[in-house]
Amino acid sequence: MVEDKLSFIKEVKRRRTFAIISHPDAGKTTLTEKFLLYGGAIRSAGSVKSRRSAKYAVSDWMEIEKQRGISVTSSVLQFEYDDFCINILDTPGHQDFSEDTYRTLMAADSAVMVIDCSKGVEDQTKKLFQVCKMRGIPIFTFINKMDRMGKDPFDLMEDIENVLGIRSCPVNWPIGSGKNFKGVYNRHENQIEVFNDGNHGQSIAETITGDLTDEKFTGLLGETLHEQLKSDIELLDIAGDNFSLEEVLNGNLTPVFFGSALTNFGVEPFLKSFLDITTPPKARASNLGDINPESTNFSGFIFKIQANMNPAHRDRIAFLRICSGKFDKGMMVNHVQKGKKVKLAQPQQFVATDRVIVDSAYPGDIIGIHDPGIFNIGDTLCEDGSKLEYADIPQFAPEHFARISTTNSLKRKQFLKGITQLSEEGAIQVYKRPNIGMEELIIGVVGVLQFEVLEYRLKNEYGVEVSKQLLPYRHIRWIANEGIDYSDLSLTMDSMLVVNKNEQPVLLFQNEWSIRHILERNEGIELKEHS
Ligand code: G4P
């Protein structure tokens, strides 16, 4: 028994669960693939999606992703590296991303932020970064594409600090850039790592290592680069922020790494340091206090539901983040919100391009469980009969709205089934005009791309064609006054009243100004930003 407990703790301690966030095209997919290459999960790189050659990334699932060459659904991958067991949560990087992205971050213990060195911090990164900050999760920055001419590394650090409002501390520093990108200086190890020339894109980059002052590097790098490196490091040591593990783990300081995912330069040093600095799963907040991952009582929460993910497996899968205890295939668990016992019969994990059935899993792991329609996002599953509930996963306010109806009234049933399914997955939020039937719905989404996903999935999975009219509203407010007679409300041309599935009134606005206007026109009305 003691032996069992020790090996359980060992398993927890070797888990690292993180999300990769970036603006589209910064190189997130390429970096993920290189991690898999280094971990031995794939034999050679090159299956990365390419808009031109129609090859797709290992983590792309849906057909629409392939067609558009973008990631729509967040995916999860597990692989081993050294003694670590790594779970990567991929997040859609497209600017029109969905709530799914936000929720995925709830299941991660840390985040890797990939930045294109020629672009610096871009819009999408800012939005995702805010969510990480809100949750206080540690953020690691990988400045990518150093094999191309980019901004000055000092300017990039300033950009991170100014735009994101977080302090930065380079763990490694680039030696040259563009065609002259020779390698990195590892400040933790006080060591130069110069990459051997060769075709590193598909295989692991070999390095020549040594001391900063080692004269062999003057020959390898050339005098100018070697001198430049020495003065950069001196400047960083004097003027830069000191590395503090505590500040990193509290999300106040981001360790920065430079490299090139495409050529594999700097990928392995980054992965090694990242795994070293990050922690195994930490205690999670619940209604019964913090739950220690090393507690042997199994518990976890559902953070994502996805239907019809793969045409070969037409099913609905709930993604469960394990928070404590060991999971065994077929175990009976307590579904807290439903007050029911459920058997977790066909748990799956996602390894490179495959899904595999898992026999056991540990805190930090993400497993996919078959969902016969009983799970909701945020549900807690636990082993004992306790009333443990993990903190709610916040619902994010939709920012885009459209009027959707089916073009064929004979397909109404399938239309509603599809809409219900997508709404349960959390991909869309459904409203309607008061006193109007369900033939015409108002759909709210966080990212406008979700409309395309909605149309695509209704057509391909439910055989329903829809007509869509985009609406100009950008803000949503829930009316907080209990039992208000909303037919009496005085509205403006740039607002709209809708109701949710429980007939609760909700207002949609085109701009902040119209929100203030409605508040002035309707004395006593209380508007909430969240449901
Ligand atoms: P994403 O998932 O963040 O959207 O980015 P992705 O990895 O798909 O990379 C976007 C583009 O940037 C790809 O080029 C990829 O090859 C390229 N890229 C990624 N990392 C690096 C790097 O370190 N250096 C350079 N020079 N390029 C990099 P593409 O033209 O869109 O596709 P492909 O035809 O090259 O496959």
TrEMBL record:
Residues 13-282 form the Tr-type G domain. PANTHER family: PEPTIDE CHAIN RELEASE FACTOR RF3. Keywords: Cytoplasm, GTP-binding, Nucleotide-binding, Protein biosynthesis. This is Peptide chain release factor 3. Pfam families: EF-G_D2, GTP_EFTU, RF3_C. It comes from the Bacteria. The gene is prfC. Increases the formation of ribosomal termination complexes and stimulates activities of RF-1 and RF-2. It binds guanine nucleotides and has strong preference for UGA stop codons. It may interact directly with the ribosome. The stimulation of RF-1 and RF-2 is significantly reduced by GTP and GDP, but not by GMP. GTP binds at residues 22-29, 90-94, 144-147. GO terms for biological process: regulation of translational termination. It comes from Vallitalea guaymasensis. GO terms for cellular component: cytosol. It is found in: Cytoplasm. Belongs to the TRAFAC class translation factor GTPase superfamily. Classic translation factor GTPase family. PrfC subfamily. Its main location: cytoplasm. PROSITE patterns: G_TR_1, G_TR_2. One of its GO terms (molecular function) is translation release factor activity, codon specific.
